[in-house]
Amino acid sequence: MSSAMRRPLAANISRSLSTNPGRIRVTHIRNFTATRKALNTAGDASGTIKPKKKRRIFRSMLIYSTLVTLTAYGAGTVAAVNNERAHDFFSESVPFGEQILDFAESKGFVGGLPRPLVDPAVTPRRQRPTPSSGPAPEPPKKHEKIEALKSRVEEKVKEKKGRLREVAGQLRTTAEKGEPHGLQSTHISGTLPAPLPPKSYSEGVEDLVKEVKGVLKGDPVDRQEQEAAKVKAASESEKTAESAPPKSEAAAETPSTPTPVQEDVEPPKGKQWYDNKSPLPLGFEPPPGYALHPPKVVPKTKAGLLLVAPAVAEFTASEPLLSELASTVDSLAKYLEDNPKAERSVNKVLDVAKKDLADLGNKIESVKKESKEQLETSLHRQAEEYSVKLLEAELNARDKLDAQDEEWRHYFEQERLALLQRYQEKLDNELTTQKELINERLKEEVIAQGIELQRRWIRDVQLHVEEERGGRLAKLEEVATGLKKLERLTLDNAMYLDENLRLHAVWSALRALTNVTVESPVRKPFRDELHVLKSVASAAGNADDAVLVAIESLEKSETPDVGLEPLADLTSWFVTSVGPRVSAVTLVPDHGGGVLMHLASSILSALRFKRSGLVEGNDPLSIMARAEYYLNEKDLDSATRELNQLQGPAKELLRDWLAAARRRLEVQQALELVQSQATLSSLLVL
């Protein structure tokens, strides 16, 4: 919509607001229709076609369904509060119908509109049937409310009775033990329970009884009006008590009994009083032409003062102080009731009451101090006992945790060893399988080559036969020569295959021996693997003498039975054990070193800085640093060469380590020799 078209529309709306506010919508629709027609005309004239407006089906359905639901619930609620059948159907069949009807009845919606709260005896809420038409059933909701209020009244009465029993029990216990726990202050009125008027309910129960009566009559309950009525009645009673003259002692002790007063009231015009002996049922009205009697007026009477001495009569045997205090309070109350203006003449009575209250307060304080001291002693003793128990529990828990930790460590070690054994068995099985596969493959290759040679020989023979046939047997010598060549090739191939098999066997034995000796993480004996390698290497006719000599030298030593130390163990042995011990004796001379020299060398070695890396120099510390560097680089040969330069006590300390390193180097050199010879043989075969 253009700005030129918005201005007339705004002007029309403002004009309509100023002239007739009740027709704003009509003017707006009219102006909008005219504007829309103008837009359509302008669009047709310009020749542009506007896209159709999308129909919002979901929003329309949501709006219409909401309106229909609200209308149905509203109409159903109005019908339910005006008709019993509709009421029953709406509360039983419609979702949330019962809650809606309860809300409507609590707000006073009867006949579709809320009505003021009036007496149902004068203006009934709904037209009730006459007794002649038969009793009608009471609505279920009202019956439920009555039952709920009855239960509330019973619970309130039980609660008040229980509270009174507790107070009586506390007073009795206090009187017997001399511990007035129930007395919270030294004021006289705080020590005694509030007196109950005769034939009356306890506090809170009377309101519930009135509420029950109101519900039975059909009146809705209004808490605010009840509270206002209570406040008003209290103020009026105070004014009456102030203006009324004082009563005598006999009148105070014997309260007057209220007598109901029946007013002589004429019945309404055209009606007579309903004098049936049996009362009407709940929710029913008298027949037409009859009216109910107005309620009886009962005059209010003032009850006399209750005495304190009878209330504490059961405590006088154990607590005479309470009896004296109660008699003092009763005498003071009687005197003040008889002579309300004689306040100056009661000083003696007040002094006696003050003295009794002071004695009672001192006794309460002494009892409190004794109970406090006993409680502190008991708490201190219990704290010590529980501290000892807590310490014992903590020690037991630590012992259990240590035992569990040790058990888990043992279990972990067993599992680790079992896992290592399983993996070793798996590795051996895989090696055996690979060896069998390689041998099977070699056999298949040999068979295939033999078949191919046979085919080639047959073809050659056939060719030669044909040539001989065609050449008149002139080339018999050539056939013989070819046959010899063929035999030579066959022998060469057989030798080639045998050599290949031997080389494969040598390599397999060499790898097995290497895995057991050099590459093994633990020390193992390897005499069986060495024997296999020797038998495979000596099977060939042209076996190298150096290889056999190296293998025989290893067999004659004890190394195959003992095994080799892994490189990681040698490094750890040197770093953790041998290295520090050698460093401690580096300053000891080669000959003549005593205990003091050893002790001084050990102390000074601890104070010197540790060297690392390729340090230059021929002193023992530099040699040790270079050896440790070579060991970290996994160069055992260089480390051994460096350590062989040491002399004296250092050489003696390194004797075992050097022996283990030499055994490993000897085996390693022998394996390298065998590997070189096997590689050379493989190259010669190719």
Automatic annotation (TrEMBL):
Gene Ontology BP term (one): cristae formation
Gene Ontology CC terms, in alphabetical order: MICOS complex
Ranges of biased composition (kind: Low complexity): 242-256
Annotated stretches, region: Disordered: 114-202, 216-287
Ranges of biased composition (kind: Basic and acidic residues): 139-158, 216-241
Keyword Transmembrane assigned: yes
Family from the record: Belongs to the MICOS complex subunit Mic60 family.
PANTHER family with a match to the protein in the record: MICOS COMPLEX SUBUNIT MIC60, MITOFILIN
Protein name, per record: MICOS complex subunit MIC60
Organism name: Serendipita vermifera MAFF 305830
